[in-house]
Amino acid sequence: MLIAIIAIIVVALIFDYINGFHDAANSIATIVATKVLTPLWAVVWAAFFNFIAAFVFEPHVATTIQGKIVEQSIIDPVVVFAALAGAIIWNLITWWLALPTSSSHALIGGLVGAALTKSWLITKHFSLDALKMDGLTRVVLFIFLAPLFGLILGLITMSIVSWTCRKKARGRVDGWFRRLQLVSAAAYSLGHGLNDAQKTMGIIWMLLIFMNPVKYSAHLPFWVIIICHAALAAGTMSGGWRIVHTMGMKITKLQPPGGFSAETAAAITLIGVSHLGIPVSTTHTITGAIVGVGATRRLSAVRWGVAGRIIWAWVLTIPASAIVGMVSYLLVYPFVR
Q1: Residue 81: its pLDDT value, please?
Q2: Burial 161-187 (b: 16+ CB within 10 A, else e)
Q3: Please, which residues have CB within 8 angstroms of residue 295's CB and are 6 or more apart in sequence?
Q4: How far apart are CA 58 and CA 315, in angstroms?
Q5: Please, where are the H alpha helices in the chain?
Q6: Which has the least CB within 10 A, 175, 234, 292, 332?
Q7: Closest CA to 120 of 174, 66, 63, 82
Q8: Which pLDDT belongs to residue 265?
């Protein structure tokens, strides 16, 4: 059993790495699009602050993933493995299609699908008793609220920036915000590390509690925090340029003031909801902020067709990854029962 637990922890870290590769492109999309940093230096900057988040914040999001989505009694290594398989496969599909979907909701979808499948095999009828509906409802609600908060804050921040700098020369303003974007991009990457690395922590925590409830129920070991942030940062260092192109260039054209406004709005949203223990999508958040920034110029400045494709990918993420999680559980279950 110990070997199986270790193997699934490795799979969880692979998911974390792919999460960094897939989602952390969002951390650098705006700063690359505005040409403040080259892609290479942008990923170094983002990865550093992804990792630093390990030493700054409490693991509230990990607590939610571990104990507020699925009943602990239903958790076993097969459920966790199937959940990770659902998330990883969906992430790779959407990465190939250059769609900036949510690794967070892919993981939750995979977990829900695997848990429901195990419950069905045990009871011989479909039931939602394996799920903690209060926690799951909050997560689903923030699929819609996170981008909305990002949009509103992006619109407000960009409006304030535009009004403050209305009488200043364009070249001087761009120069100021090229420097300020280093700060806003760092804050956003910190928020990304804070929220996204903790989802993998929560999954590993589930496994540790399954293995030894007395030892691990009360607290999350610090070594888990470190390895999850390290895996996310390593994924960030690997790039993800296809999604950078979609986020930073296809939704709306960004200049340094707009990049700063989008990153600031998204960072405020991410850090705020993370303190509440809500696992949100960094992708949703920064996309909403970019749309809000673009809308301050005119509604036609936003390429709504691209935004629409992204929204459809968001809507499909949980059910699609849940289906993959279900299939993964059914494929593995015969070999372990």
Answers
A1: 93
A2: bbeebeeeeeeebbebbbebbbebbbb
A3: 151, 155, 301, 302
A4: 30
A5: 2-23, 25-33, 39-52, 60-67, 77-96, 103-123, 133-164, 170-211, 213-216, 222-237, 241-245, 256-275, 282-295, 304-336
A6: 175
A7: 82
A8: 95
